[in-house]
Amino acid sequence: MSMRQRDTSQLAVSAAAYLFIGTFALICFIPFWLMYIGSFTAESQIVKGFRMFPTEFTLDSYRFLFQGSQVYYSSFVSVFITVAGTVTAVLMTSMFSYVAAHPKVKYRYILSFYIYFTMLFPPGLVGYYLLISNWLNLRDSLLALLLPLLFSAFNAFLMTSYFRTLPFELNEAATVDGAYELYIFFRIIWPISMPVIATIALFYALSYWNDWFNALMFIDDPHNHPLQMMLRRIVSNSENLDYLNANVNIPVSATGIQLSTVVITIGPIIFLYPFLQRYFIKGMTIGAVKG
Amino acid sequence: MGILHELKRNKWLYAMSLPVIVYVFIFSYLPMSAHILAFKQFIPAKGLWGSEWVGLDNLMFFFTGPDWLGVTLNTIYLNLLFIVTGTVCSLCIALLLNEIHHSVFKKVTQSLVILPHFISIIVLNLMVMNFFNGQDGMINHLLKEFGFQMISWFQTPEVWPWLLTIIFVWKGAGWGSIIYLATLTGFSEEYYESAKIDGAKRWQQIWYITLPLLRPTIIVLTLLSLGRIFYGDFGLIYGIIGDNSLLFDSTDVIDTYTYRSLRSTNMNSYSNAAAVALFQSVMGLITILFFNWVVRRVDNDSKLF
Question: Number of folded domains in chain B?
Answer without folding.
Answer: 2
